[in-house]
C-alpha cells in the first residue's frame, strides 16, 4: 500500500495519505494572525479545507478532530467558527484540549484532523 506525503518539508508533511485515510498535521492560522480566536479558527479551518481537497477529501469525510486552545475561556469563540464550518450532516468525533502554549506565542488555536479519502 502506497504512502502519499503532501507539502513535505525537512521536518514533516502537512498531510499524509495511506490506506484510504488522510492525516493532517496540526494546522494554525496564517503568519501574522491576530489574537482573535474566532478569526484564527476560521483561518485554520480554511487551511484544513485546502489540504483535504489536495488529498482528495473534504470536511464531509472527517473522522476525528482534536482542537488545542491556549485559553479555554475562548472555547465559545472557537466553537462559533467551528459550527459555521463543520458539515452538520457529517460531524466528526472531536476533543478540545487546553494547552499552555503552541509552537509560536501568536497561535491560540491548533487543529489536527483525520479524514477518509
Automatic annotation (TrEMBL):
Which Pfam family is one of this chain's hits? Ribonuc_L-PSP
Q: Which InterPro entries match?
A: RidA_CS, RutC-like_sf, YjgF/YER057c/UK114, YoaB-like
- Ranges in coiled-coil conformation: none
| Matches recorded under PANTHER family | PTHR47328, RUTC FAMILY PROTEIN YOAB
The entry assigns this protein to a family as follows: Belongs to the RutC family.
Name the UniProt record assigns to this protein:
RidA family protein
Q: Which organism is this entry from? A: Ottowia testudinis
